Amino acid sequence: MNFDTIIPRRGTGSIKWDRRPELDPYWVADMDFQSPECVLDAVRERASHGVFGYAQAHESLNDALITYLATRHDTAVKEEEIVHLGGLVVALSLAVRGFVKKGEAIMICSPVYYPFLNVAKDAKADTIDVPHVKVDGKYTFDWEAMEAAVTEKTKLFILCNPQNPLGRNFSQGEIMKVAEFCDRHGLVLVSDEIHCDMVFDEDEQPFYSALKLPDALKQKLIVLQAPSKTYNIAGLGYAFAVIPNDTIRRGFMSDRGCTLPEINCIAFYTAEAAYRHGEPWRQELMSYLKKNRDTFMEFTKSEIPNATTPDIEATYLGWMDCRSMDVSNPASHLENDAGLFVTDGVAFGGPGHIRFNYGCAHSRVLEGLDKIKSSFAKL
Ligand SMILES: Cc1ncc(COP(=O)(O)O)c(C=O)c1O
Questions:
Q1: Ligand 1 within 6 A of 241 CB?
Q2: Does the C-beta of 89 come closer than 6 Å to ligand 1?
């Protein structure tokens, strides 16, 4: 696969490219790359059947998921623990509605993927936000503040690992501590692991899925994963939950009601293809993204005065701290001055920051960063 190839996306009904066609897009989290051939084949094969009625997960999908979870993440999952979903964000809502009542609360740590900040509203519940803190140059959890903030009404914690937008791949120790915190306070732990196959230095620190926690800490656990970020198939709509405990699984499904549509019949097949056959492509992708990641971090450090970025351990999303610059809203400055579309940190609970998506050809990463440099130089 040649990741340098630029595939025009404008006019394809793409949120990223067509929402604000007058701007140069580096915002929403999808990549500009074509999916691997195995995924394209799965689309073609299922499409050529020509009948697209209501679908359910076919048996070999469950087998593919179980094999993938065992081989990539060293976890033993049983078929009955898997819940198929049409996307991951709906699962956040189901979890909150299933376990949190009006007037109760969830806990999150910002800056974080923006639905985390809003999902409690689906249950008319409150959100307790305990922002991440930097310790020795790395963002982590503010353990003391979490203990101080948790109340009897807090029922659920949503973890984002790897973290969007901070790019952290939390260590086993950190995940254990989060799980122990949840256990101590009786919280359901929802672990959003959608970026788990996009960790850069897996040899140094492999991804630690919450599914690897000891059994005692898995009794109130909901793990959410999807092939959508890694294989760039978010538009097909598919994710899955693994919920080891029967009661929690029933509670999760209890508010499903009539709100969820059936799952896309093609997405089931692309998920299977990605997990079964996508690994060689994924490895190529990660080495390409690593070059983009290094460029983003080095360029920010050397070329953009007063901007900083944390070390990015995972994902194709770069978090840039612009608070030392003379600009109140860096994203709108870049939009107005340079015609750039980056994500405003405010959406994640991080004002004064921008999130830059480098999941694109290297030449476009350089182009975008050059525009940021020139535009900030005018401040
Ligand atoms: C942490 C995280 N969770 C969930 C999603 C979206 O998942 P879905 O498109 O399956 O709803 C994203 C997309 O960027 C994300 O970064």
A1: no
A2: yes
